[in-house]
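hey can u check if this looks right to u? its 96 residues, i copy pasted from the old doc so theres a chance i mangled smth
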Amino acid sequence: MDYKRVLRLHYVNGYSSRTIGKQTYDGKSTVAEFLKRFEECKELSWPLSEEVTNEYIENLLCFVNRFSAKSEKLFPVFGSGIPFFRIGAWKALVIT
């Protein structure tokens, strides 16, 4: 997500979360959650200073992909007598 663009569309143009989501190809819930976190953040305010980057905003608001951890599944791997688990290793399921 281009956080600075979202903020510009919201504060300068007065667009709603739905309209911003359509323009940036992000979900309206994602945009609304970001704007809520931005408004609650004491370190950031509109207008942004020139030094503020998208990466800084992302790190400050802890706005990371929530679904990456859920998509990784643990699969058992046998072979050495001691079972262990590998992330995303569904093809590596070997029973000896």
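Confidence is low (pLDDT under 50) at residues 66-71, 85-96.
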